[in-house]
Amino acid sequence: MSHEPDVLRAPTVDASGKRRWIYPDRRTGRLSRIRGKLAVLLMAIYILVPFSTFRGLPLFRFDVQQGIIYAVGQTFRFSDGFYLVFVILAGALALGFVTSVWGRIWCGYACPQTVFVEWIIRPIEEWIEGTALQRRRRDAGPKNLNYWLRKLSKHALYALVIWVITNAFLGYFVEPARLLTWFSSSPVAHPFAFGFMLLTFGALYFDLVWFREQFCSFLCPYARFQSVMISKATPTIAYDMKRGEPRGKHKDGDCIDCELCVRVCPTGIDIRNGLQLECIQCGRCADACDMIMTNIKRPKGLIRTASEAALEGKKPRRFRLRPAIYLTLLLINIGIMAVALGTRSDLQVTVLRQPKTTYTMMDETHIGNYFSIRVVNRSRDAHPLTVQTDPAVRLICSLCNQVLAPDAEEKGNLVLIVPATYEKSEVELNFGETKVILPILKPGKTS
Q1: What is the pTM of this model?
Q2: Is the peptide bond before 323 cis (omega within 30 degrees of 0)?
């Protein structure tokens, strides 16, 4: 039977298709120190943002219960799909630009999955269960009291940390005061909320503690379409094959085939096989290789951040078409959205004919048309709702002449009463800066 690795099989899966647990060694170096400092900053941002405010509004919240999205002083209703399309498009273009210029730097440095696993989950594991070699031996050895005490201690700490992460995560969707009520009340008082919190906690626990690198390898779509964003000029973590081969302790190449680059990899790949979708560009292999190169007194950088073109000895181009296209489209997208936001009215009025209604003869001289009205005050100030229309038209409006509270959404009914001799087929309602034109149905015109 051949013992050669199957390059088509993920490193986290064995030949039988079962999970192969990864025990990554940890080595410090320039890249890991940068990642560590950045991780502290990012964790603070990820946890504090849902509880922060800007101009009296949540800094960012996707409030599911109220159907409102708060983003840096702006409010959007779920019905504002126009803006949501531009936000999603801006995110995709920004990701494309970053990837084309710096490779998968998002995965290795900023993705919450990587940040929490690499800088909270794995350090707890290393602190309680020891180095990679010690952990591998304990898992393969007898399951004695010491083994179970270490496992229980580790998972108790995991539970505490992930409970904090869970509440921060829910803070992106639930108002903090309501979240605190859920947290401090008896589960019997809020069974649905408590169940939702437990479900979220369980999902995060499963992902961060057990699933780990498999999320990047099998679930995250980003790895699948990264190849369309990068080019030969995009820098990635790469092995300098010209310098390293032929590898071996007594060969001419600089690589002594110690395989430390493989042992430190959190996804278990061998970077010497080239760019792979499992590589999250964390740079652990580069730091480990630099340490070995220093020990054997050879130049650092056998594994380094470099483009394919640079490894081939080509000079880097100052202008690259792919990032330029991504950046241009991103700026156009941001410009359109800025103009749309700058010109949007504080008052959003939606008037729809009530279902299964046409018209009603109020008496022999007047006709009534029935509508539903929905009004949203997008401003931070109270807004009086006034309406003007044709003097021949009489309005019965349950919301008109009221004062709308800031960020309020109100729904009501509206009846248009026009003379039977009214010749126009439409009526214009003027709500200040917002105009609404309503078709009038009358005898002989029911559609």
Answers
A1: 0.81
A2: no
